[in-house]
Amino acid sequence: MNIVDMPAIRDLLKRGNARVESIQFSSCFDEHVTQLPWEISGNRLNWSQVPNSTCIEWDECSDPEIKSFINRTTLANYKEVAVVFSAKQPALVCSYDFFADNLDVFFFHFPGPAYFVGYPRGRAESDAQWDFLEIEVGGKICGFKRS
Fold first, then answer.
1. C-alpha dihedral over 70, 109, 11, 3, to 10 degrees?
2. What is residue 7's predicted lDDT score, i.e. its pLDDT?
3. What is the pLDDT of residues 34-58, one digit of tens each?
4. What are phi and psi of 145, to 5 degrees?
5. Which residue, 6, 26, 30, 109, has most beta carbons within 10 Å?
6. From CA 48, how far away is CA 63, in angstroms rounded?
């Protein structure tokens, strides 16, 4: 099923809280992220091996603590965020504020981690650096420390 066909996502699009970005964007991000170190399970990045990274446990933090954590990552440098679910699905773009206030809305009916990528990139998509968070409901929220 295409992510944009899910009722919760259709509702976001209809209300104007998000818009669709190309599968090419998702695929480009996937090419980058697959080059980073992964946990043995292959389900998520091994953030202990990623320089300048920081993580918290979702289920050990309140909503205000999670928002504060996100605001201390490089994602806070962007006005918009692209939500990447997989290389074969279009991304969704929303405002940074909507993303930070409504994290859980992006996880309806979608298993596994999602990636929240600073948007627009502001540099060629082939560049090595992407600013993003990896989030799994009930698991870790990880990203890059903001300077």
1. 90
2. 87
3. 999 999 988 889 999 999 999 999 8
4. -65, 140
5. 26
6. 24
- Among residues 141, 130, 40, 46, the alpha carbon closest in space to that of 99 is found at 141
Total domains in the chain come to 1
At 126 the three-state DSSP class reads coil
Instruction: Give the Cβ contact number of residue 25 at 10 Å.
Output: 21
Report the half-sphere exposure of 95 (CA within 13 A, side-chain side): 5
Both tokens assigned to 98: 């909507």
Residue span of the structural domain in which 95 resides = 3-144
| Alpha helices, DSSP H, located in the chain | 7-15, 23-33, 63-71, 96-101
User: What CA–CA distance (Å, rounded) separates 16 from 21?
Assistant: 14
Give Cα separations from 122 to 9, 69, 146 (angstroms): 26, 23, 17
Residue 45: DSSP 8-state:
B
Q: Which two tokens stand for residue 23?
A: 């599968």
